[in-house]
Amino acid sequence: MSTTTKKTYWKGLAQLKNDPSYVKHADKEFVDMGAQEDPNHSRRDFLKMMGFSVAAASLAACEAPIRKAIPYVVKPMDADAGIPNYYASTYVNGGDYCSVVVKVRDGRPIKLDGNALSSVTKGGTSAQVEASVLSLYDNFRLRGPKVADKAVDWETLDKEVIAKLEDISTKGGQIRIVSNTILSPSTKATIEKFKAKYPTTTHIQYDPISYYGLLKANEESFGTAMIPSYDFSKAKVIVSIAADFLGTWLSPIEFTKGYAKTREISEDKREMSRHFQFESNLSLTGANADYRGLMKPSQEAAVLTQIYNIVAGKSAADAGVAHVEKAAKELLENKGASLIVSGSNDKEVQVLVNEINSLLGNYGVTILTSLPINFRQGNDEAMNAFVEDAKAGKISGVIFYNCNPVYDHPKGTELAGALKNATLAVSTSYTPDETASASGYMAPDHHYLESWNDFEPKPNHYSLSQPAITPIFKTRQAQESFLVWAGEKEVEYYSIVSQNWKDWFFAKQTTVLDFQSFWDKCLYEGVYELPSEPKELTFASHADDALTHVGAGAKSSGYELVIYESYGIGNGNQANNPLLQELPDPITKATWDHYATISQKDAKSLELDSDAEGNTKLLNITVGGKSMKLPALIQPGQAPGTVGVALGYGRDKAGVVAAGIGLNVYPWVSTANGSLNYTISTGVTVAKTTEDFQLAQTQIHQTYMGRENVIQESVLSEFKHNPGAGRENPQITNWDEKVDASTLSLWKGHEYKNHYWGMSIDLNTCTGCAACVVACNVENNVSMVGKKEVINRREMHWLRIDRYYSSDANPEDYKAAEVASENPEVVFQPMLCQHCNNAPCETVCPVAATTHSTEGLNQMTYNRCIGTRYCANNCPYKVRRFNWFKYHDNQQFYASNPAMNTDLGRMVLNPEVTVRSRGVMEKCSFCVQRIQTGKLTAKKERRPLKDGEVITACQAACSTGAIVFGDMNNPESNISKLLKIESDPKRPYGIDKKIGNPRAYRVLEEIGVKPNIFYLTKIRNKDEKKEHA
Amino acid sequence: MMKDRLSDLVKSLTLVLFITLSFASFAQEIPTDAAAISAGEALFNGNCKSCHRVKQKLVGPALAGVEGRVPSVAWILDWVKNPAKKIATGDEYANKIYNEYNKSQMTAFTAYKDAQILSILAYVKAEAAKPDVAAVPTGSGDVAGGGNAGIPSSYLNAIVGGMILILVLMVVILGLIVSALKKFLNQKELSEDDNQIVNSPYTFSTVTKSSGFIFVVIFIIAAVGFKTTIDGLYSIGVQQDYQPKQPIAFSHKLHAGAYEINCKYCHTGVLKGKQANIPSPNICMNCHTQIKQESPEIQKIYAAIGYDVKTASYSGKQKPIEWVRIHNLPDLAYFNHAQHVNVGAIECQTCHGPIQEMEVVKQYSLLTMGWCIDCHRKTEVNTKDNAYYDKLNELHASAKKSKMKVEDIGGLECAKCHY
Fold first, then answer.
1. Where are the domains of chain B?
2. pTM
3. Do B419 and A913 touch (CB under 8 A)?
4. By CA distance, what is A945's nearest residue in B?
């Protein structure tokens, strides 16, 4: 083998430290929960009851219930029962944007996919986008308009609102429309119409996660307050100063696409980008970095100054953060093909970042000022002035357009108090959220899947959203509300949008002759894009100013607090979505919880300890006099002296799912240089309390018992001369010689004559974003089980993302391992049923409920399963999930699993997939329902199945193309080409195919179960000589 | 988006024509070759049959002799492609027909080529020339499966009868043997006890108290009880012959049987997707704006769709019809009509029975898993003209001599129906 030293992998600190609780439970899939028998209900009682119920059930079964079949009265042309329709639309949540395709079954949206025709999101999605389909069926949505918390009809509300607006207007009172970033040109035109009627109206945009500092910095550097497009795909060296651009920063879907392009690697392409990350919290982006430096927020200015000075060729003082010098030098070596971004909202910091990018010649290459992005337009100063004016009683009327500042603005509580004095306060939110509850009038808007709208994410890039369902409740499009209140009669927003498009776009093009065809085409494609002019803005240097200002605020005393946007919950808007609450955080693997991440070093000094069961203590964190108690989560890779806390929790008016989870930390957000500041370097105290808390983490579950070829990885320098670097070919002694483990088998092996389904997962392009996990949950009706059951290790996810920490330290050298665990390397591995050809689960099932198909699938038949769980016990990958409870139609799981417990929620279920009942096993089916549909389409059209016709839900959701699924019998398929599959001429349909890709390996190859899922080795772009943090 | 436009909905059907004058000279344009006639038959059955018959007046006139009635064959071509236009041009014959049939307009078949219309005419002409046959509604396709499978009952009766005869003979023979033995023993010198045993009388109580009798009775009761229980358990959830009363007394016997309306005309989803679709009332209205307006059952359709017969207009007030679902598969079983009817070319009657003879529809087949599996074992895969199966066919032919059954290509696997 090469120079690779043996690495140590561990799933969490408990495993690394050999924590007693870990050791005790390591070989168990589930926690030992002690005696479960209820003393009041003995086994004997149970048998008695069972005897009775069996008799009762069989008697009851004699009478079959009458079921009705109700067809359409007048069937629409394109709607056929049981056949899904697809509509292009657009997901927006404030300034978050994604062009999507909505799958509609029998009039109900049930799944979202990315729209590949959009050149902004390019078919990518994220966990939040995937989950948003369930928010349409949120039981907490408003059923109709309300005045002073009483349901009214729209006429009553309109009459009162108009009367008050006119009253304010005649008296010359001030009116404000408050919103998050608005991407829609037609909505903005509508607001202008409203302003024309009530001239004292001002429209204020703010963003819960502000980028105002970045806007202001660009105003200083370019004269225009805008945010440029970032093209990560062209960058050879990427330096990120605490910008989580793969997870939450600005436009993560777009950036993930571009970034993954630079991380793709093969025998033919042996180059990849190098990624440096300097940050305090271990973010999703940091986890993907090649070099990661631990940096306190107060060190940010020094790090940037050092980079600037090196890039500018000046003498540079060392900032005391690892890898900074190396990063700066490599930036310099890759002038014009590099990128440095910062997650800071401080104008001065961003100006300095602009200076560095300008010196590096990145503008026009990796940063396009000619193509500004509109995702964040919020103005912190205007918003702050609004709150102050409201407090001073200067605002008479305010309309909150789909925003929730009472919750997500630092001065939210003060705003709520001030609203009581306003003559009129209206909220258009579709749920009675914190702001709506504080406003007297609730005029609920449609959900975005029920709305017409248009969007302009970037200049000359337009997209449409169209209703995929008739409005479920008596809600009304907010734009129509604005127009009604502006005195217009007979308004229909649909015709306004189409008229605008006629005037704005149809009139200016010549390819399509009639408007209807033009409109239909735009609606069909979801996007309308025009070529943009590559006219870059001129950069004006303010380097000296920036250098003097940037250091000024860098003071530090005691702990430093980093407030970050949670990956799943985001800014808190979708907190009531159980798909996101139960989604394990990519790094901490915590679900249903809000916590403070602290480093091991600080934990030691606070005498904190946590175990593998997530038992920890609450920390009392005080910032500027405001104290909150949050559970501590000891996080490897957290910069010592810093504490990370997520936004988006503590929603007390979001609904039953979000109720009681965490605390709202928006009030901790401070202001610096006129914009909101998410890092606090002074005045933070952290104290340990004696209160216990148990976090629901999925991280220690299902350990691999030290079988270390699960992750196979290497570094680029080795990969360059050996594409098989990092591969471990387990060998087994056979009589007298050693042979490859995979060549030995007791079994004859299957022959798949028709299709042979297989999957490949590239560990290098997988960023761990978990969009696939949510997509899988939605597609396959996977139950959400709630915090308690996650603690019991009974989560039901068919696809999980295993996150391993690793270091180069010798496995025996505990001291070195502990040092390394301060800032470990991270690797993500999506783990799902491996569809083994010699499946161990199949051989132990006493009732043949899990069997093998002629297409290579490991099938799970729920109606045959009797729940012995032998299969789960025998599965080496621990991917089988048991239904410990009836999760549907069970009030006990109402709060965690509304999709199966309310009539409204049930509308999201995929009718093609059975809802599993208690006592049966389930697992990944390779989306067999999609395979069957694809095959049927081909059969109906009397032709062979084409590659790419069948894609699994996880593959469709994967923005980076890390997951490839297809027919391994088809030599033309993507997977055959990617894995370089060569069939054995003697057995062309046998399973013993030769895999030619040197990077491809099967997990636990030596046990000979022959999975149909292949992983491609992880390659880090590190130098040959390994360095330690 | 989902605007309900009634006229859009029915893109199929109806060829109409009515006529007075005859121009025999044009008739020669109608082809007479067998290929054209069979192509015309397919088109006629698929598109025209719901309104027209060759020798019978339905929604539209009987088509026999149409080529002799109309002004010209060219007139028919124009009319079929766009009847409304023909009427609008003030064409005398077109307007006459239009008024004669209560101003109901025939659907336009704009996409039809002249050759297609001519082939339909060829078929009509050929059909019209055939002598009348007694109109007996017959179902298309063979009827198989269901409860009739197995040995015919007449055979069973004969076997049982034969066995009873044998048993009676055996009893007679045994009786003769017993009396012969008795006679033989009585001739010998027997002790008192033996004599008593030999000559003990057969009374009712000695028989019923004998252990053999008790054993036989208990055995029979237990066996029958066991069989009944097992049969009962197997029948749980099986609703064969379920024939609920429907909200509208729709007769398949009349529509599918007597009028031979193609099943696919109303059950529009059957070739496309999972559900065959219960037709929406707007399909009924294609014919019933004209036919049987006065029937109380048709009034129910009018009420559902909001149709006023007097003004021939729609009020827009709609109320869905709640049909009682007859065929209920459990949620855990997946069934797709398109796979069976489109790809497999299975006749509807194979599973649904002689639907064209049912006044009220009932569940004809068992719809149990055993019933499905049985058919998958017996049925040959319909691979004709389907390139999807080419490779499988080739591989199967090289390995086995028997025909490729559904079972051979994974048709018995769990995840084909359960997922």
1. 6-129, 156-201, 209-238, 368-419
2. 0.85
3. yes
4. B388
